[in-house]
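Tokens as discussed.
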């Protein structure tokens, strides 16, 4: 019998199946062919493999985020020892954000069927001559994290790994803002020129969460 669905199939590239037959496994090709799904090192399903170079860079970046968390915490300790509570708590919170960033990369690697490998976190530097040097180091650290992210992005583009470029888009822009905020703080500290009263003013701003760069838009 020349049914309605067979008739419609004449005008389509695919065979149209009557709704009542769609879940009838006895006649379909899928009943015979086993479905195989590629899996990663942890046994999770992989929709698209990740290149070895991409994976190595992702692992290195994940560990850089953890190292940044330790570096921020060391800076927070330096300020806490000197009664600069605003700096100490601000830098502690920044360190917690770095841990969140590391967790985001762990989540992503798992979502891609890869196994995150945690590396050793090196003891952070804890001795500094003055406030400006501590904050200058923070700025350098943020710039290094940005460079690592951009390297990831470039590699993802080279691999045409669009899942990774989409994942990185928001992260790269957030990282630019982190650099912006660190540059602002470094600028304020430079103005203070290690004058205790001026440093106390910045500390008070940080304590009130009022230390942000100018926003001229709007
Ligand atoms: Fe980060």
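Sequence:
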């Amino acid at each position: 019998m020349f049914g309605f669905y067979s008739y419609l199939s004449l005008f389509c590239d695919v065979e149209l199946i009557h709704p009542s037959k769609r879940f009838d496994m006895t006649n379909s090709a899928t009943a015979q062919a086993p479905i195989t799904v590629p899996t990663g090192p942890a046994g999770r399903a992989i929709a698209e493999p990740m290149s070895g170079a991409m994976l190595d860079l992702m692992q290195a970046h994940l560990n850089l985020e953890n190292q940044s968390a330790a570096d921020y915490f060391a800076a927070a300790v330096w300020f806490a020892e000197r009664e600069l509570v605003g700096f100490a708590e601000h830098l502690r919170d920044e360190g917690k954000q770095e841990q969140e960033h590391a967790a985001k990369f762990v989540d992503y690697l798992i979502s891609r069927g890869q196994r995150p490998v945690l590396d050793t976190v090196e003891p952070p530097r804890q001795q500094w001559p003055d406030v400006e040097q501590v904050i200058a180091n923070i700025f350098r650290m943020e710039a290094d994290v940005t460079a690592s992210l951009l390297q990831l992005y470039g590699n993802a583009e080279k691999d045409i790994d669009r899942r990774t470029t989409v994942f990185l888009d928001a992260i790269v822009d957030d990282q630019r803002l982190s650099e912006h905020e660190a540059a602002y703080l470094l600028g304020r500290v430079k103005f203070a020129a290690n004058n205790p009263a001026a440093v106390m003013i910045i500390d008070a701003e940080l304590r009130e969460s009022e230390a942000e760069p100018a926003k001229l838009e709007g």
